[in-house]
Amino acid sequence: MRELAFAGLVTIGFGLGAYYATDELGRFTLANLFAGAALLSVALVGGSRRLRRGLGAPASRRVLLPRLFAIAAALLVAVALERAASWSKVQFDLTAARQFDLSSATRAALAELPAPLTATLYYDEGDPRVRHTRVLLETIAQAGDVRVRERRMDDAVLEVERFDLAASNSIVLELADRFEIVERPTEGSFLEGLLRLEQNASGVLYVARGEGEANFRSTGELGFSGLASALQLQGYRLRDLVLASVDAIPEEASAVLLVAPRRALRPESIDALRAYLEGGGSLVALLEPGPVTGVEALLGEFGFGLSDGLVVDPASGPVAGARPGVNPLVESYADHAVTRGLDATRMALFLTARPVSAVRKPERDDELRDLVFTSPGAWLASNVEAVLRGFAPERREGELERRYPLVSVGRYPRGEVEARIVVFGDSDFASNQYLRALYNMDLMLNAAKWASHRDVEASLLPKPWTPDQRPLTPQQTLEMLYAVGLLLPELLLIGGGVIWLRRRSA
Fold first, then answer.
1. CA-CA 20 to 30 A from 421: which of 19, 31, 462, 490?
2. In terms of domains, do 276 and 358 share one?
3. In degrees to the nearest 10, what's the CA dihedral of 15, 21, 25, 27?
4. CATH number, position 117
């Protein structure tokens, strides 16, 4: 029975550890909790029978009663420590996603509140999710001018009807005479609600279309509606720009987004972009390998070099189900507003990307930099079209391995104005399917902010838990670690403990 009890305690301990680390009742956690409860139940039934027989003897009572008192005392001490920790308000964030360490974007939004914010939590008694939400709101209240309230839904029927609340554990954010509802509260959903309330005007982004560019209205995996929503939450207004029908870029444009054109742009469109940039405009270009659009030559005038090859980085392995190395993970970043907060532990994912490099400065005061890099073992595949159709990449004879840049930027002071350009060697990383993977969204939003002269606001967003996201996020990778990597030490601990108990009683 002792062996069963020991195995049950270890199993429950690993299950609770995984739950508190991930804040998710995953399969590993549930399996451990159920197995541990079953083992302890069997041990308790068998032990109670032995206990009834053994307590009749004085010698047994002398051995057992002190131990029972010691267990009771240990439980009392544990409860006292838990109560003391709760009273002291001292908190340690041991979650895998650092869910209670506020991101720089959340702190910035709280610091810019134009008036005090009221956050009211509506809940039903017994809802286990409320504990998580309370701690999150306490952390947020410490970082800004936020008043936190709680209301039982049964005691606030009129408010529930007014806000049309559908479920327990919902937060209503009120700022002046406006309100937003945050369902399934996380730091990310809280920040989105806060940004909708603030709606600080950030400028106008013109989205180029007409030459096969990305569809910012499509909600499919290959669409870019997610990027459109993310930019609008940052306060940008998005407007269509059919380059083939304009002679000049509107003066109100904070920046032009040119995302994955598939056909060559008309010379008049190239001339309009050139005049816009020379007049102090900004461009964010996401260019896929393969198509020749004429934008490559224009960017060459501003000092960028775009190879017609496709980057293969064997260090990245078979990411997102593709051949090894075809979808490179970022290995390092240069220090810049676009990459603020990003480092080797905060990777971004690119898919079938071309290299982009800063080659030369058109004028002495211009600044060009490469920002995002592969590992040093990357090389270029020459059969781009074949690789895009799923064939293996081919390496040119004599092709050397090197660290390839995937994103480059340029600043061009021209008198009283300054043009800015950000060039990505890929667009799929910002599609609906991959925008929230790893740190893709942070990189893309920071690029848009820097290009529109909002570089002081570039910051990291809170990371969501996305169980269905492809490829795996760092949080999902950690969940797999708990479900697989912890299983072996758990079994070894149980096995070792059982052997020790048996030898001790022999």
1. 462
2. yes
3. -60
4. 3.40.30.10
